[in-house]
Amino acid sequence: MRFADISLQKKLDKQIKNMVQQACSDKVYTVQHDQLTFSDFLSNKLLLVCVIRGGVPYAFFDLIQRFTPFDDHYWADFLDISVKSLQRYRQDDRTFKPSLSEKIIEMAEVTNMGLDVFGSMDKFKLWLDTPNYALGSLQPAELLKDSYGKAMVVAELTKINYGILV
């Protein structure tokens, strides 16, 4: 994964350590909390499940939002809540319920993969906003709003990563 902002990477790593420690400390997950990184977290499905079930705190969402190329309006639409509700989460520093937490983490996974494939946020954002023939001439960003569309986008990113341009 490539971070343009090293301080954001450090903040994400720190937030992951705290979330995993809080949500998963009583579970039988053998993870060194002090060495856990954001990339490690995204590749460990058991940790993802544990954190999702505990709910994602707004502080983590805020970091994810800064990590992804999406604004409040896109996130509100993606999470199927109003922008006002999203602002209330911010004001009250609330924890997202598991169904919303899952979507937040899914978007982090897609962004992480996109950065690995394209090497920069600008190139990834351009790809997301460009109609794609392999995706029915839709913009990949439009497809991220449901699980089947997300799976199509991830499959297309995987193909691009392996040089399969059909």
TrEMBL record:
Domain Antitoxin Xre/MbcA/ParS-like toxin-binding as annotated: residue spans:
116-163
List the InterPro entries.
Antitox_Xre, Xre/MbcA/ParS-like_toxin-bd
Any stretches that span the bilayer, and where are they?
none
So which domain of life are we looking at? Bacteria
Gene Ontology MF: a single term = DNA binding
What is this protein's record name? DUF2384 domain-containing protein
- Output the lineage of the source organism: Bacteria, Pseudomonadati, Bacteroidota, Chitinophagia, Chitinophagales
